[in-house]
């Protein structure tokens, strides 16, 4: 007996989780990927820093997957609003939720809502052209910026704030962000963490980039590094190398050349350890921030498991910009889908959503918002394997034919929603690359959903009109 | 000379035949044999040209290692992580800081690990064995995330 229809799965979200899950399933399944924005690729487009173009090379793999005969991309479709999860479950044999983490953890301190305080998620979204962050207009007229959190996102923000404009102007950073940064008065960035140097969450590549950032010099507190040297010998190699680089940057007396380079530098950056935010302080008019109050901690325990304990002392730091980089957070999409609001993930076992047959999840939504693209890749392959296992074992019934995108497309049309196909995205892609050419950038991103839709959907109309006019001539 | 012209005419169709048959016909003596042990423990033997990186070989030979080489050899990930035996590891030459920075993030890192995109084939590596480790997960995780 030959099965004429391959089982049908739909994936909600077109970032790395969505695409890597698709890549694995496409071997057997028909895969439809739904994405809220007209453009695919999620955080690869909107999260990865503009000066890290190599990290975005995965887009080539994703493009291959999208163009596979069994894969279809449907952009501009808001799952939860334009179509429900229940409707998707009726149309497909399985539904995989891979929509990531669009919220952020709040600091939970007074003054957090003052002008001048931003989440790293929004700041990064702003310089990367995420439509919802277009109006952020961060005020960069102050001298000192304080970043809470010491992960790679925090370091990305610091680096973008302090990079020479000559470097940034050759990247795909948005034009408004580039102009704002060109006018920026920010000269000093402090990257603040609750614990000590040995617990820092960033990785060595990002630290090295800060150390080597042109026209900047490091500004650390030597006392923060007491007891770190002795702990070195017991550390595993990755942690040891990272800590050694930090120690060198903080404590070593630089050679003549480096000394000269540092003395000429116009910008400084530094880590501040053992500090937690307790209040954002306002100016007398209460309209803007004047600084941030930090509690001083001490460490209990050691290594990865050490935790910060309040000492009762506090310290005020004057600053005009606070960026909170303490983690992204997933949000529930649909009341019919189980959601663990404490952990902010969908409760699951190996990607199988608990108490919801035929529903799966992958990426940050499954394990929490940490890890790089390659971590998500593995996570997504695991979910795909669970799906395949369930199909093989009969747990997932794929015997009955399902309508798949046919019925969903009909529903969307009735509701006045026009999906953007992958070849429509390629038109947006071409427009962006063309726009970037004249300014020496890899692309000039379109900044609004409306513009994206115009280019995607009206492109064909315009081309048709052009050929009609050619004929008339 | 006539002899040289004949020799070239002879080589051309044979080389085309080699391309057609794949690398199993050992006509070109400068090819280097590489053995990969995949995640299922199976040995896969292929050939590469001197100067090719191990990532190039995996791509050229269409080897199906899930997720291998995500950043396309630009030292922006650790998914081309390979493990060698001690003898072979010593022959592989020096490792740069940039490679070690990314290698440090590889899952299942060992003392004889390297990134495949940075290892270039030479004749002295003939017959090398490279094991593709269990998982390609990068261990970069921000510790101040939830769970």
Automatic annotation (TrEMBL), chain A:
Q: Which PANTHER family match?
A: GLUTAMATE SYNTHASE 1 [NADH], CHLOROPLASTIC-LIKE
Localization terms from the record: Mitochondrion
Note one Pfam family from the annotation. Answer: Pyr_redox_2
Please identify the protein, giving its name as recorded.
Answer: NADPH:adrenodoxin oxidoreductase, mitochondrial
Q: Which reactions are catalysed by this chain?
A: 2 reduced [adrenodoxin] + NADP(+) + H(+) = 2 oxidized [adrenodoxin] + NADPH
Where is it mostly found? Answer: mitochondrion
What organism does this protein naturally occur in? Oreochromis niloticus (Nile tilapia)
- Taking every annotated instance into account, which residue ranges of this chain make up the domain FAD/NAD(P)-binding? 8-161
What is one term from the GO cellular component aspect held by the record?
mitochondrion
InterPro entries per record:
FAD/NAD-bd_sf, FAD/NAD-binding_dom, Ferredox_Rdtase, Ferredox_Rdtase_adrenod
Enumerate the UniProt keywords alphabetically: Electron transport, FAD, Flavoprotein, Mitochondrion, NADP, Oxidoreductase, Transit peptide, Transport
GO terms of molecular function: oxidoreductase activity
Q: Name one GO biological process term.
A: cholesterol metabolic process
Where FAD binds, per the record, is at 17, 35, 43, 79, 364, 371-373
**Residues holding NADP(+):** 150-153, 194-195, 206, 371
Pathway, per record? Steroid metabolism; cholesterol metabolism
Write down the required cofactor(s). Answer: FAD
Entry's family note: Belongs to the ferredoxin--NADP reductase type 1 family.
Per the UniProt entry, the Enzyme Commission number(s) are: 1.18.1.6
Domain of life, per the record? Eukaryota
Signal peptide start-end: none
TrEMBL record, chain B:
Name a biological process GO annotation: P450-containing electron transport chain
Q: Please list the GO terms describing molecular function.
A: 2 iron, 2 sulfur cluster binding; electron transfer activity; metal ion binding
Cofactors needed by this protein, per the record, are: [2Fe-2S] cluster
Compartments where found: Mitochondrion matrix
User: Which keywords annotate this record?
Assistant: 2Fe-2S, Electron transport, Iron, Iron-sulfur, Metal-binding, Mitochondrion, Transport
Question: Where is the major localization of this protein?
Answer: mitochondrion
InterPro entries from the entry?
Answer: 2Fe-2S_ferredoxin-like_sf (IPR036010), 2Fe-2S_ferredoxin-type (IPR001041), Adrenodoxin-like (IPR001055), Adrenodoxin_Fe-S_BS (IPR018298), Beta-grasp_dom_sf (IPR012675)
Residue ranges constituting the 2Fe-2S ferredoxin-type domain according to the UniProt record? 32-136
- Superkingdom of the source species: Eukaryota
One matching Pfam family is: Fer2
GO CC, sorted alphabetically, is: mitochondrial matrix
Annotated family: Belongs to the adrenodoxin/putidaredoxin family.
Name of the featured protein: Ferredoxin 1
Species name: Oreochromis niloticus
The root-end lineage is: Eukaryota, Metazoa, Chordata, Craniata, Vertebrata
């Amino acid at each position: 007996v030959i099965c004429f229809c391959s089982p049908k799965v739909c994936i909600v979200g077109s970032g790395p989780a969505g695409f890597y899950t698709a890549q694995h399933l496409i071997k057997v399944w028909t895969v439809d990927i739904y994405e809220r924005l007209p453009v695919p690729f999620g955080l690869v487009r909107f999260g990865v820093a503009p000066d890290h173009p190599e990290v975005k090379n995965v887009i080539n793999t994703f493009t291959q997957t999208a163009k596979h005969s069994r894969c279809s991309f449907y952009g501009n479709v808001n799952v939860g609003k334009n179509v429900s999860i229940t409707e998707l479950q009726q149309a497909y044999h399985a539904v995989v939720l891979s929509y990531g983490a669009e919220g952020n953890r709040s600091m939970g301190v007074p003054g957090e809502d003052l002008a001048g305080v931003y989440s790293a998620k929004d700041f990064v979204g702003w310089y990367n052209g995420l439509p919802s962050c277009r109006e952020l207009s961060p005020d960069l007229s102050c001298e000192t910026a304080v970043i809470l959190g010491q992960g790679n996102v925090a370091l990305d923000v610091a680096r973008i704030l302090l990079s020479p404009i000559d470097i940034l102007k050759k990247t795909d950073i948005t034009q408004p962000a580039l102009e704002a940064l060109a006018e920026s008065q920010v000269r000093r960035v402090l990257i603040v963490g609750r614990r000590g140097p040995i617990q820092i969450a960033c990785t060595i590549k990002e630290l090295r980039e800060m150390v080597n950032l042109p026209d900047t010099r490091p500004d650390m507190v030597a006392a923060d590094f007491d007891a770190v040297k002795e702990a070195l010998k017991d550390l595993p190699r990755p942690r040891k190398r990272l800590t050694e680089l930090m120690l060198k940057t903080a404590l070593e007396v630089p050679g003549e050349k480096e000394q000269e380079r540092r003395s000429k530098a116009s910008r400084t950056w530094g880590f501040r350890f053992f500090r937690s935010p307790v209040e954002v302080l306002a100016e007398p008019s209460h309209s803007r921030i004047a600084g941030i109050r930090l509690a001083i901690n001490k460490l209990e325990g050691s290594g990865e498991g050490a935790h910060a304990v309040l000492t009762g002392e506090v310290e005020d730091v004057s600053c005009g910009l606070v960026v909170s980089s303490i983690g992204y957070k997933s949000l529930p999409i649909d009341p019919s889908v189980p959601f663990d609001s404490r952990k902010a993930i969908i409760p699951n076992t190996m990607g199988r959503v608990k108490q919801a047959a035929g529903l799966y999840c992958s990426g940050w939504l499954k394990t929490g918002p940490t890890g790089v693209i390659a971590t998500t890749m593995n996570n997504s392959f695991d979910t795909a394997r669970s799906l395949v296992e369930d199909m093989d074992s009969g747990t997932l019934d794929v015997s009955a034919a399902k309508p798949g995108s046919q019925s969903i497309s009909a529903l969307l049309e009735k509701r006045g929603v026009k999906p953007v196909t992958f070849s429509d995205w390629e038109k947006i892609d071409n427009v962006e690359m063309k726009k970037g050419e004249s300014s020496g950038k890899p692309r000039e991103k379109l900044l609004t959903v409306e513009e994206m839709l115009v280019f995607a959907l009206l492109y064909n109309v315009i081309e048709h009109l052009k050929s009609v006019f050619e004929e008339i001539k | 000379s006539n002899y040289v012209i004949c020799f070239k005419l002879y080589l051309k169709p044979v080389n085309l035949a080699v391309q057609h048959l794949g690398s199993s016909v050992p006509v070109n003596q400068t090819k280097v044999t590489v053995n990969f042990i995949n995640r299922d423990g199976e040995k896969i033997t292929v050939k590469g040209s001197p100067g090719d990186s191990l990532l190039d070989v995996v791509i050229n030979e269409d080897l199906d290692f899930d997720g291998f080489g995500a950043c396309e050899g630009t030292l922006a990930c650790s998914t081309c992580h390979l493990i060698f035996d001690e003898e072979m590891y010593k022959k592989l030459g020096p490792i740069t800081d940039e490679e070690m920075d990314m290698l440090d993030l590889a899952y299942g890192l060992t003392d004889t690990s390297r990134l495949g995109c940075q290892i270039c084939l030479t004749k002295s590596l003939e017959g090398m064995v490279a094991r593709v480790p269990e998982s390609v997960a990068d261990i970069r995780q921000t510790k101040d995330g939830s769970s």
